[in-house]
Amino acid sequence: xxQDELVxxxxxxxxxxxxxxxxxxxRQPVVNxxxxxxxxxxxxxxxxxxxxxxxxxxxxxxxxEIGRSQRKLQDTTSQTTELKTHNQxxxxxxxxxxxxxxxxxxxxxxxxxxxxxxxxxxx
Length: 123
Fold this sequence. Notes:
Blueprint: H1 2-15, H2 39-108
């Protein structure tokens, strides 16, 4: 009996095959070497490139216009300064001529000038 039981255990152990795992081949996805684009995607890309180029041209043009405006402003500022200087010189010359004319009239009429009684008059 013991032997029968031992034989059964042995047969049982021998008769149960262990399942072997066979590697199943994995399917590799098919990779196309070229990416196909739809008509909409192509149109969108061309529109984007045209828009970028237009913006670049616009930026360069704007910088050019800013430089030109700065030069005009500088020219106008220098002309304004020159005119102010010229006007100041003319005012000084006019004041000098007025004083000379007054002094000449005083001498001609044999009068005297009392500077304490002279007042400045502004125009």
